[in-house]
Design goal:
Blueprint (H helix, E strand, L loop, with lengths): L1 E12 L2 E7 L2 E3 L3 E5 L6 H8 L7 E6 L2 E2 L4 H5 L2 E4 L11 H9 L6 H14 L13 H13 L5 E5 L7 H16 L3 E6 L2 H7 L2 E6 L2 E7 H6 L3 E7 L13 E7 L2 E6 L3 H9 L3 E7 L3 H8 L4
Parallel strand pairs: 4-9, 4-10, 7-8, 8-9
Antiparallel strand pairs: 1-2, 1-3, 1-5, 5-6, 10-11, 12-14, 12-15, 13-14
Helix pairs in contact: 3-4
Length: about 300
């Protein structure tokens, strides 16, 4: 079953495009990554899915229902964490979360238990006022608020800002646990490391358009490999003038580069060198991402 499905989803702000012809299909039970730099169209896509902005054209369905027609009903089953969280500063954390929980069709005891469990897991003090919290602790409030009703779909827009590395890992573990219970997750981020660690598939968005959607493993495997080699003598740049080599850096006897092409071709070049060391490894998602953006 497809939890999210869009068809040529497009949003213009006046004459300026936010997203153009976005096609996404996210299956039930997936942790799906959505990556791109700020301004690429990630947040516009999410806001359109949530019914916060209306599409200029195209369509979007969540749980098989049109988001423009059934937005209120759909959002009852969605947990959303925006990139920036804003609250009434004078409220205590517990009062805010209880108020948020009152909007869902769950009894008070269930909500109360869920709030306390999540707060304890994230080391969040429920008695403090919102105004007294650090940015990271306000983000924790947003996490609890988004998960307290045990949503079927969790949508996260740059979720880890303000969280220290240990709390980020705890948050990732929490997401995995919710996913194992059946929740589908859409994780929008420009932090490629967290997407690589968490997600099974990823879509790359550039200038409002999806440029690639693929399994994380396949995306890495089908792309460049990182070569680093050391020779006994100075490396000649002309040896690496073949097609498929990018980001060539030569420092005396050491050369490193990305290569995409038949392995047999690059092996022929390397075989003629008087090697001391050779390292061949898969590129991380960061390098793949920069490749799609044409960055050097």
């Amino acid at each position: 079953m497809n939890i999210i499905e869009t068809n040529k989803l497009t949003k213009y702000y006046g004459k300026s495009p936010g997203i153009i012809d976005v096609d996404l299909t996210i299956k039930e039970g997936e942790i799906f990554g959505f990556i791109g730099p700020n301004g690429a169209g990630k947040s516009t896509t999410i806001r359109t899915l949530l019914g916060l902005v209306h599409p200029t054209s195209g369509s979007a369905f969540i749980f098989g229902r049109d988001v423009t027609k059934f937005g209120a009903e759909i959002n009852e089953q969605i947990g959303y964490l925006p990139s920036e969280v804003f609250y009434y500063d004078d409220m205590r954390v517990i009062d805010l979360l209880r108020y948020s929980g009152s909007f869902y069709k769950k009894d008070k005891q269930t909500i109360e238990k869920r709030i306390k469990e999540l707060a304890a897991y994230l080391d969040l003090d429920l008695k403090r006022k919102i105004d007294d919290l650090s940015y990271g602790n306000k983000k924790k409030v947003g996490i609890v608020q988004g998960l307290l009703h045990e949503p079927k779909l969790i949508i996260l827009d740059e979720p880890t800002g303000g969280l220290d590395p240990l709390m980020q890992q705890r948050f990732f573990d929490l997401l995995k646990a919710e996913n194992q219970k059946g929740a589908t997750v859409l994780l929008s981020s420009h932090n490629l490391g967290e997407v690589q660690r968490l997600c099974s598939r990823v879509a790359i968005i550039k200038d409002g358009r999806i440029v690639k959607t693929e399994k994380i493993g396949d995306l890495i495997e089908k792309n460049h490999k990182r070569f680093k080699l050391e020779t006994k003598t100075k490396v000649a740049k002309k040896l690496f003038s073949m097609n498929g080599i990018e980001d060539l850096v030569i420092n005396g006897n050491v050369a490193s580069f990305l290569y995409s092409g038949p392995i047999s071709d690059i092996v022929k070049v390397i075989a003629d060198l008087d090697l001391v060391n050779l390292l061949v490894e898969e590129p991380d998602l960061e390098e793949i991402f920069m490749h799609y953006y044409g960055a050097k």
